[in-house]
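// run 5 | inverse folding | seed 20
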């Protein structure tokens, strides 16, 4: 439950809260909550700081990419499915997914558009893609109207780290579902085995 006070804008949809400045925005608070997970990892000795993987679907996929680009932790790999938060200005103008609520806000407050788009740009994954150094494994769906593949591709093309994209043709926002999950389980086993081999070589 979001009970934090907002200084600029407010509304029923979380996405329209704090729209006029990055410091006040809902997105900043959402990202900050995710960043706190790294503090949890630091506080639990049983967790290995050198084996951090990021994973998420939809909004979670977009957040995984954002965190990967922002945090200073060593990330082994990021797995992001049908990711949100890419090419946000077009997402707003085309009213796709949760960004439709922001488009509705701008219909009522067109004078705020410049401030709103400047705020949202701070949280657009396309501006963080080149800061990611670890492997990125992604999936998208060609008929996804919630987080359109064409918008995610803007971020994907800017990734300079090792990357892969699995496209589920004709699928909507559900993406690959169980097929993608099985693919990711197999991938994680492979990555874990490689990590264990590296650890053995360093003994």
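// decoded
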């Amino acid at each position: 439950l979001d009970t934090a006070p907002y200084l600029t804008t407010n509304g029923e949809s979380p996405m329209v809260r704090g729209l006029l400045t990055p410091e006040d925005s809902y997105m900043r608070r959402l990202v900050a909550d995710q960043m706190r997970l790294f503090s949890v990892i630091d506080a639990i000795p049983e967790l290995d700081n050198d084996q951090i993987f990021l994973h998420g679907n939809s909004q979670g996929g977009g957040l995984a990419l954002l965190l990967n680009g922002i945090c200073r932790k060593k990330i082994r790999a990021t797995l992001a499915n049908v990711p949100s938060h890419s090419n946000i200005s077009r997402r707003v103008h085309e009213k796709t997914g949760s960004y439709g609520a922001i488009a509705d806000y701008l219909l009522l407050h067109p004078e705020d558009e410049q401030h709103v788009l400047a705020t949202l740009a701070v949280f657009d994954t396309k501006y963080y893609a080149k800061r990611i150094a670890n492997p990125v494994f992604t999936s998208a769906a060609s008929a996804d109207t919630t987080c359109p593949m064409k918008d995610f591709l803007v971020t994907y093309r800017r990734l300079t780290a090792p990357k892969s994209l699995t496209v589920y043709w004709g699928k909507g926002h559900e993406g690959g579902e169980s097929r993608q999950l099985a693919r990711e389980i197999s991938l994680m086993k492979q990555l874990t085995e490689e990590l264990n081999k590296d650890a053995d070589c360093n003994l």
